[in-house]
Specification:
Elements lengths: L2 H21 L11 H18 L5 H29 L7 H31 L4
Helix pairs in contact: 1-2, 1-4, 2-3, 3-4
Length: 128
């Protein structure tokens, strides 16, 4: 068993599941979208992105691209949350929360593509 592949797969799947956990639920209900879950999704996605550097294969490049997309979108979602909760005098409105969740849902799509790539790569792996 390759420990590097285990760690890589772990963070790819954890990034997707944390992101899914944040996105699921009514877009306008703040109680269903915990800010700490969003921050955890950002942190794990950044770790997953860092782990994808160094893979020089074509599928590795696509893995990195999907991870960069997810990380950037989650950072933007967290930025919108921070802005609306700390700077905007209206606070986190239903519209602002819907924007945060929508952006995070885009990141979830990128994470799903990354998981699909991981499965394809695993299935097509030939033992040498």
């Amino acid at each position: 068993m390759n420990l590097e592949k285990v760690v890589f797969g772990f963070f790819v799947l954890l990034a997707a599941t944390l992101n899914f956990g944040y996105v699921i639920g009514d877009m306008s209900d703040k109680d269903l979208h915990n800010v700490y879950e969003l921050y955890a999704a950002v942190a794990v996605n950044i770790i997953a992105t860092i782990l994808k550097f160094g893979d020089r294969t074509q599928i590795g490049a696509v893995h990195l691209a999907t991870s960069l997309v997810a990380s950037i979108q989650l950072i933007i979602a967290a930025g919108v949350w921070i802005w609306t909760s700390n700077v905007d005098p209206g606070g986190i409105t239903e519209a602002a929360l819907a924007s945060v969740v929508s952006i995070a849902a885009g990141a979830l799509l990128a994470n799903v593509v990354s998981v699909i790539l991981l499965v394809i790569e695993t299935v097509s792996y030939r033992h040498r």
